[in-house]
Design goal:
The chain has helices at about 5-15, 135-150, 160-165, and strands at about 30-35, 40-45, 50-55, 55-60, 65-75, 105-110, 115, 125-130, 135, 170-185. By secondary structure, the protein is α/β, with parallel strands linked by helices. Strand 1 and strand 2 form a beta hairpin. The radius of gyration is 20 Å and the shape is globular. It starts with 6 loop residues before the first helix and ends in a 10-residue tail after the last strand. Residues about 1-20 have low confidence and may be disordered.
């Protein structure tokens, strides 16, 4: 792109008909469902399961609550702020990086409940958190990027490299519309004949 366009060229550019702009596709209908006792997250696209991922859920004394909520934003390279809870009284604010308990990305719901990566990947698939849902970092990044590219204007693939390159800096992306999330308790699942 050259800055040396003539005034006539600039005028021609401004007068280009809007019909030539590519039409944007409507985003798919997406919903996330977590079956708490199965420690499993399912991302549905247009009513069909697109991906199923293991998660860590809250320990018995800090259970993950059943709720209906939304993901309204994504935070890449998040800071961790200890909550005002007895279990976190000796913890310190943790900047983005390898020691951060939220891993590479967090996706807040309501009531301080989050989907997030983790620095304790061995805990995924078990009741191990204080109510949040921990994911393998790769799964959390994959889901966050999917949501970002479908529900925000931040679609440029170079952004993923930027988030990784500037890993000490937090980037916040708002989702529009927010993505619905259901946290349910379904102790029995039938799949095929099992």
């Amino acid at each position: 792109y050259h800055r040396e366009r003539t005034a006539a060229q600039a005028e021609t550019f401004r007068e280009a008909p809007a019909a030539e702009a590519p039409a944007e596709e409507a985003p798919p209908e997406v919903m996330i469902e977590v079956n708490i006792p199965a420690t499993e997250l399912t991302l549905y696209e247009n009513g069909k399961p697109l991906s199923v991922k293991p998660i860590a859920i809250g320990q018995g004394v800090y259970p993950t609550p059943e709720q209906e909520s939304h993901i309204k934003k994504i935070e890449w390279n998040p800071w961790w702020y200890p909550p005002p809870a007895e279990w976190a009284k000796n913890d310190k604010v943790t900047p983005p990086g390898p020691g951060n308990p939220l891993g590479l990305v967090k996706m807040p719901l309501s009531d301080a409940i989050l989907f997030h990566g983790t620095n304790k990947e061995k805990s995924v698939g078990r009741p191990a958190s204080h109510g949040c849902m921990r994911m393998f970092n790769a799964d959390a990044v994959e889901m966050a990027w999917y949501l970002q590219t479908h529900f925000s204007d931040q679609k440029d693939p170079a952004l993923r490299e930027l988030y990784q390159k500037k890993s000490k800096q937090t980037f916040v992306v708002k989702l529009d519309p927010p993505v619905p999330v259901r946290l349910i308790y379904k102790p029995l699942i039938v799949r095929g004949d099992k």
